[in-house]
């Protein structure tokens, strides 16, 4: 069975500082991994995803994530936080191509301090 | 671009009442999904559909029903509302390949059952 653990339900960073949101997964097969962002009063929007190939994945708005199989991790990073990055971020996993479900983590709320 | 449209945005129901959450997408996507998001929890799949006339249960289907008479619409029905169904409901759609391709989410419906 697949599961996702997001360490830290709330993360605060200063504007311009590094953003690091942690995600560890559990999967019995090679996983497909995703990061979604949810801005206030909006639905989720895909930031980036890893399916196969290069383990460093670049997404929208300057975010990237690295798939580390040995650590079962898929942490999300951004070198320099902007105020507009304040949102809730969800890591998710699925176990197969064409899966009809994603297993979501509990989310991390990012606050950016001016 | 409308994308995925959910109505209503907010609703308060009394215990035992029924209601239908509407979801429509204009992207000609085959796959559609209903998720619920409880406070401090990740999204849980309620029902999904891989095409008109085809629906299937997700992780938490009890207390809900769906139908998919057209490609565009995927309504979620609550027959006898219970306090445990207080949640934020998200509808999503994706093209072929299910959730491993990019899923597009609506803005959500915040439902309170009192």
Written description of the protein model:
The complex is a heterodimer of chains A (114) and B (114). By secondary structure, chain A is mainly β. Chain A has strands at residues 3-5, 10-14, 19-21, 24-26, 32-38, 44-50, 56-58, 64-68, 73-78, 87-94, 103-104, 108-113. In chain A, strands 2, 5, 6, 10, 11 and 12 form a 6-stranded mixed β-sheet that branches. The radius of gyration of chain A is 13 Å and the shape is globular. The termini of chain A are far apart. In chain B, the strands form 2 sheets. In chain B, strands 2, 4, 5, 6, 9, 10 and 11 form a 7-stranded mixed β-sheet that branches. Chain B has a 4-stranded antiparallel β-sheet with strand order 1-3-8-7, with no helix packed on it. In chain B, 35% of the residues are buried. The chains are: A mainly beta (114), B mainly beta (114). Chain A binds chain B through residues 4, 9, 32, 41-46, 49, 51, 90, 92, 94, 96-107, and chain B through 4, 31, 33, 40-45, 48, 50, 56, 58-59, 90, 92, 97-100, 102-108.
């Amino acid at each position: 069975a697949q599961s996702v653990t997001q360490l830290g339900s709330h993360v605060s960073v200063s504007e311009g500082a590094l953003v690091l949101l942690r995600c560890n997964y559990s999967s019995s097969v090679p996983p497909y991994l995703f990061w979604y962002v949810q801005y206030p009063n909006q639905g989720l929007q895909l930031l980036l995803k890893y399916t196969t190939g290069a383990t460093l994945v670049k997404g929208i708005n300057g975010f990237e994530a690295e798939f580390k199989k040995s650590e079962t991790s898929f942490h999300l990073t951004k070198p320099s936080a902007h105020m507009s990055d304040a949102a809730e971020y969800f890591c998710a996993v699925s176990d197969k191509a064409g899966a009809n479900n994603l297993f979501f983590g509990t989310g991390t709320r990012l606050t950016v301090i001016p | 671009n409308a994308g995925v449209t959910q109505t209503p945005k907010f609703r308060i129901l009394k215990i035992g009442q029924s209601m239908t959450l509407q979801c429509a997408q204009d992207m000609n996507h085959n796959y559609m999904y209903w998720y619920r998001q409880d406070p401090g929890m990740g999204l849980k799949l309620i029902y999904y559909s891989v095409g008109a006339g085809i629906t299937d249960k997700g992780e938490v289907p009890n207390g809900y029903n769906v139908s998919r008479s057209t490609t565009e619409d995927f309504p979620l029905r609550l027959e006898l509302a219970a306090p445990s169904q207080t949640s934020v409901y998200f509808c999503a759609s994706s093209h072929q390949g299910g959730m491993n391709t990019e899923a597009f989410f609506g803005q959500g419906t915040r439902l309170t059952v009192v």
